[in-house]
């Protein structure tokens, strides 16, 4: 980040603009939203500038800017639409000690003006460091549509009520109150007119003051396979509101970034110095945080109900009388088949699909290999990297066709997704040879739709 976004108090400060043409007018429209004292230097100002001057909204000086004209200015804009003149006045303003912006000249500017969504006092500033103005405009348009036009009004009324709201203890209780106001009680009251908002705030405060101590609860949330776009809306909402997020090792940082800024993040899958947390420790942690009245999100990769040791955690909650619920997620198998353009089930090929693990707590996991070895069978094998040789051996031993397609998908849905297209006969040593380091799932009985190309890609990568 080269430019650090801040909100500057311009009330009563001096802002100087050199230029009175179209580009100055565009900037002035923004600056005049503030309470700054604005002075414009221009020998030939547009009529709009003259009107603003006549209305007393700015001071107009009918000449070009000279030395000392930008003294005491907090900000200075060179907006002459003419490079040489902009450079000249920028040098003068810098000498006068002002922070200088040359319109449409990022390199020579000391600050830049973001795209702004104005719901005063709520202001959203969008910047792309000059890299993608189109993107900034698109985001602005999106936000303009999304943020109710009357949000500013709610915020202004809310601001006047801040003092009264201090009757609620700082922290969660007060946050809950404000969330209720902005997203529920406030907008509803506004429908009956502006005068209805303040009484609504008073009765809302009463309700919150009388509320019993809040009980904590746990949401077991599926974080999906890694791509944050594959989170459900419900998962997004849970992350938005969570006070404590206890997550697995496989949950990506892109997903964790969506957790509320104030949330406490606990990495339950920490590797490195120590080994990962034991299941008992995780259970204890979940129950402890919920017991302290917190909203706990237990974030598990993929879907929490698939090889997630969910039941043990639920039992711990039940034993401690902690309320819980489950938010499903996209499991690795779904992401992996999507990645290779295949279906998990297909008419006349397989009417059932097996979700199995090659490795469980006791070691290699036995399955009904005989039925899986039949023609057209499909299985998604989780945690299969370590047990690939065992699975391969068992299936061949039970008569599976050595030419059965097998596809390994590593880092499904992530930017570094890799696909290894092979056959049962060649699964090992191909898999070991590929040296995969990310989470990988083995799709038995499925080949990628574009098998040849993908296989070539991988071969090339292995060769490198
Ligand atoms: N609950 C998870 C599975 C947890 S078990 C889910 O529903 O996806 C962990 C195993 O899931 C890994 O060993 C790997 O086999 C698989 N896995 C998880 N994320 C993956 C990803 N992005 N790509 C491929 N496999 C993944």
UniProtKB/TrEMBL annotation:
Residues 220-427 form the Tetrapyrrole methylase domain. Its EC number is 2.1.1.107. PROSITE patterns: SUMT_1. The keyword Transmembrane does not apply. Keywords: Cobalamin biosynthesis, Lyase, Methyltransferase, Multifunctional enzyme, NAD, Oxidoreductase, Porphyrin biosynthesis, S-adenosyl-L-methionine, Transferase. InterPro entries: 4pyrrol_Mease (IPR000878), 4pyrrol_Methylase_sf (IPR035996), 4pyrrole_Mease_sub1 (IPR014777), 4pyrrole_Mease_sub2 (IPR014776), CobA/CysG_C (IPR006366), NAD(P)-bd_dom_sf (IPR036291), Siro_Cobalamin_biosynth (IPR050161), Sirohaem_synth (IPR012409). GO terms for molecular function: NAD binding; precorrin-2 dehydrogenase activity; sirohydrochlorin ferrochelatase activity; uroporphyrin-III C-methyltransferase activity. It catalyses: precorrin-2 + NAD(+) = sirohydrochlorin + NADH + 2 H(+). The keyword Oxidoreductase applies. One of its GO terms (biological process) is cobalamin biosynthetic process. Pathway: Porphyrin-containing compound metabolism; siroheme biosynthesis; sirohydrochlorin from precorrin-2: step 1/1; Porphyrin-containing compound metabolism; siroheme biosynthesis; precorrin-2 from uroporphyrinogen III: step 1/1. CDD domains: SUMT. The active site is at 248 (proton acceptor), 270 (proton donor). Residues 150-197 form the Sirohaem synthase dimerisation domain. This is Uroporphyrinogen-III C-methyltransferase.
């Amino acid at each position: 980040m080269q430019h650090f976004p801040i909100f500057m108090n311009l009330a009563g400060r001096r802002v100087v603009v050199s230029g009175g043409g179209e580009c100055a007018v565009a900037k002035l429209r923004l600056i005049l939203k503030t309470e700054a004292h604005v002075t414009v230097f221009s020998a030939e100002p547009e009529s709009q500038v003259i009107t603003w001057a006549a209305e007393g909204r700015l001071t107009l000086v009918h000449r070009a800017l000279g030395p000392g004209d930008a003294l005491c200015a907090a900000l200075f804009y060179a907006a002459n639409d003419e490079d040489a003149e902009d450079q000249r006045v920028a040098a003068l303003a810098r000498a006068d000690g002002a922070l200088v912006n040359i319109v449409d000249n990022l390199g020579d500017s000391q600050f830049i003006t973001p795209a702004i969504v104005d719901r005063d006092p709520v202001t959203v500033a969008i910047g792309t460091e000059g890299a993608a103005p189109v993107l900034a405009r698109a985001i602005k348009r999106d936000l303009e549509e999304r943020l109710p036009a009357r949000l500013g009004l709610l915020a202004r009324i809310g601001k006047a009520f801040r003092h009264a709201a201090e009757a609620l203890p700082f922290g969660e209780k007060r946050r809950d109150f404000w969330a209720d106001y902005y997203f529920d009680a406030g907008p509803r009251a506004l429908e009956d007119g502006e005068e209805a908002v303040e009484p609504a705030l008073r009765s809302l405060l009463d309700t919150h003051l009388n509320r019993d101590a809040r009980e904590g609860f746990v949401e077991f949330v599926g974080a999906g396979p890694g791509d944050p776009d594959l989170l459900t809306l419900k998962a997004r909402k849970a992350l938005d509101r969570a006070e404590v997020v206890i997550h697995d090792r496989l949950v990506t940082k892109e997903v964790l970034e969506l957790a509320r800024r104030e949330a406490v993040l606990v990495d339950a899958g920490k590797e490195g110095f120590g080994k990962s947390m034991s299941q008992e420790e995780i259970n204890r942690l979940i129950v402890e945080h919920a017991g302290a009245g917190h909203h706990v999100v237990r974030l598990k990769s993929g879907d929490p109900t698939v090889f997630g040791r969910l039941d043990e955690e639920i039992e711990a909650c039940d034993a401690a009388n902690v309320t819980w619920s489950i938010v499903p997620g996209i499991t690795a198998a779904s992401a992996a088949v999507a990645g290779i353009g295949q279906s998990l089930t297909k008419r006349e090929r397989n009417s059932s699909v097996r979700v199995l693990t090659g490795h469980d707590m006791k070691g290699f996991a036995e399955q009904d290999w005989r039925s899986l070895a039949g023609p057209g069978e499909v299985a998604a094998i989780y945690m299969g990297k370590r047990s690939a040789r065992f699975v391969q051996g068992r299936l061949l031993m039970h008569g599976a066709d050595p030419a059965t397609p097998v596809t390994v998908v590593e880092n499904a849905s992530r930017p570094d997704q890799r696909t290894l297209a092979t056959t049962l006969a060649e699964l090992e040593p191909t898999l070991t040879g590929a040296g995969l380091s990310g989470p990988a799932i083995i799709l038995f009985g499925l080949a990628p739709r574009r098998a040849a190309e993908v296989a070539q890609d991988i071969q090339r990568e292995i060769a490198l």
